[in-house]
């Protein structure tokens, strides 16, 4: 019950922030400062999820230092999607049971018909957050729980969430030297940003298992969706990811924009990450669906 209550607050508070932000637009309480805070914090927390929570902690797509691990854990926590351990456990469970009855957020387990399809879409997008979680999920993160840094970062999750809300508030206040600027920084760079990060991330679970292309063989309904390939910083190339889960690169074609991988590549060039895992051309060719 406590987890579901926390999830409810985490879902509703950013939505309330969005409503407040939209209402303030009528008074022109918005300018480039808050746009930059919104976009900047979206990138920081979004990349914390895509590069940190997903590609590093969950799939070990590359290696990096303890300092960078801590930064990735903090920035991912700012997205308010749960601690590293919680997020990784759910996602690893999703990969093992993708689109079967044990998948924590499949849209394809509610039966046939239009109404059941709508129920499945709702469940995959955010309905699953309000269902009780099985303790058996902990078996998916046995390796991570042995790492003291990860367990510490997970335990401090509420602190990182608070930090992610305070940073844009403080910046908004310092740049404008007003309390109004601090409030608007909190609303746009904090609450509204969390709202957008949430719904883009959740759309990978829902939209990218319903609409898109399936160029690779996989045991599920994962699909590549170019809209969320861009909005999701590369995560929308979801069929590619399910075909090659440990790959640091999700956009496998030159035209498939994968901002997260480009940043990983840049980090590797300056020595911040190494042993970056990418499938060989032979593996990619072997997994392609026949046309």
Can you offer a commentary on this structure?
By secondary structure, the protein is mainly α. The chain has one domain (2-287). The chain is 61% helix and 1% strand. It has 13 helices and two strands, in the order H-H-E-H-H-H-H-H-H-H-H-H-H-E-H. It has a two-stranded antiparallel sheet with strand order 1-2. Helix 8 (157-176) packs across helix 9. The longest helix has 28 residues, at 179-206. The chain is globular, with a radius of gyration of 19 Å. The protein starts with a helix and ends with a helix. The mean pLDDT is 91.
Produce a short descriptive summary:
The protein is 61% helix and 1% strand.
Topology:
Elements: H1 2-25, H2 32-58, E1 63-64, H3 66-77, H4 84-96, H5 114-125, H6 142-145, H7 148-155, H8 157-176, H9 179-206, H10 226-231, H11 238-243, H12 259-269, E2 273-274, H13 281-287
Antiparallel strand pairs: 1-2
Helix pairs in contact: 1-9, 2-3, 2-4, 2-8, 2-9, 3-7, 5-9, 8-9
